[in-house]
Amino acid sequence: MRAVVLVGGFGTRLRPLTNSVPKPLLPVGHVPIIERLIANLVRGGVTDVTLAIGFKPEPFLAAFPDGRCAGATLTYAVEPEPLDTAGAIRFAAIHTGIDSTFVVANGDVLTDLDIAALVAFHRSRKAEVTMHLTPVQDPSAFGVVDRDENGLVSRFIEKPPPGAAPSNLINAGTYVFERSVIDRIPDGRKVSVEREIFPAVVADRGLWALPTQDYWIDAGQPDLYLQANLDVISRRRAAPNWADGVAPDAVLGDDVMLTDSVVARGAVVGDGASVARSVLLDGAFVGAGATVSNSVVMGRIGAGALVTNCVLGADAVIEDGESRCDERIPAPST
Ligand code: GTP
């Protein structure tokens, strides 16, 4: 089975991390987001993945030089300009000759969803589109559906006002599409699958939805990117996604205190430093005696510095003894 994965967004919410690494290539538990996502597709029967890219493919080509990722064959569809979600799916499907039922996934989403079960549901309902649903506390920032007991969707509402959503089950960003959906997408302009295409498929009684309780997170904002990392080291996810916090070749000084943290291969932590509930990415340097908590770090933290609730990109420099709390990541509720 083939899949199109959308990776053409700008990743603005994860800046400055995404100034140097495209969002899908940022690691979660030492493995790029896109590789974890594709591994789950492969477990569900996907063999060929087209990455729908809005701009430069070079970092992806460098990351997967043999054209394979997690057991799938990779192809690239590079849009002449970002075409938005439906425009990107259309471009990718036509560009790579997709001619039968295929999976579509939003490149930010990490889930343990059983893709084969979603495809089986799709076939059993003879759906044109099947959407995976997941429960959230506040659905107002997402797409929400009204559906009957068999899963037929009668209404798709993108970002309902608070309190107006018919349920707390949201569009979880993984779909099965029939090839016919492509013919619904106008050519030559930006088109949103959520705003234009799903409502049209609903009107023709072709959209079905399957809720599941599987692990699901949208890793596209700093607190959730941090959480996605913590979830693989705490083994909240299914077993294929477990990881150790510290990469075997990370450089740790003496008497380092590490709690609930991920330390990448290319990170260095000085003597007596303390790191809690944080992700130290490739290139991060934490000076001796520094304290880092609830943060994601690519840059350099001086000796004795105090860094809390921060997102520090590759260019960031925190001076020796400096305190920094940029509130990019909310303090965890106790
Ligand atoms: P932010 O800038 O932080 O909002 O992130 P984003 O640019 O990734 O946007 P968003 O999370 O809303 O996008 C949802 C998914 O669609 C992501 O996987 C994006 O990579 C993808 N996407 C959004 N717009 C485009 C586009 O024009 N082309 C392609 N190929 N993918 C897109």
Written description of the protein model:
- The chain has 334 residues and is of the alpha/beta class.
- It folds into two domains: 2-233, Spore Coat Polysaccharide Biosynthesis Protein SpsA, Chain A; 244-325, Hexapeptide repeat proteins (UDP N-Acetylglucosamine Acyltransferase, domain 1, 3 Solenoid).
- The chain has helices at residues 17-20, 33-43, 58-63, 84-95, 115-125, 180-184, 193-203, 222-233, and strands at residues 2-6, 27-28, 31-32, 48-53, 68-69, 72-78, 102-106, 109-111, 129-135, 143-147, 153-158, 169-177, 207-211, 216-218, 251-252, 257-259, 262-263, 268-269, 274-276, 279-280, 285-286, 291-293, 296-297, 300-301, 306-308, 311-312, 317-318, 323-324.
- The protein has an eight-stranded mixed sheet with strand order 5-6-4-1-7-12-9-13, with helices on both faces. It has a five-stranded parallel sheet with strand order 15-18-21-24-27, with no helix packed on it.
- A hairpin with a 2-residue loop joins strand 2 (27-28) and strand 3 (31-32).
- Helix 4 packs across helix 7 (193-203).
- The longest helix has 12 residues, at 84-95.
- The termini are far apart.
- The model has no long low-confidence stretch (mean pLDDT 95).
- The structure holds guanosine-5'-triphosphate.
- Residues 6-13, 23, 52-54, 79, 82-85, 88, 106-108, 220 line the site of guanosine-5'-triphosphate.
Strands ordered across the widest β-sheet? 5-6-4-1-7-12-9-13
Biggest β-sheet: count, sense, barrel? 8 strands, mixed
Secondary structure class reads alpha/beta
Which outline best applies?
globular
Mean pLDDT: 95
Strand content: 25-35%
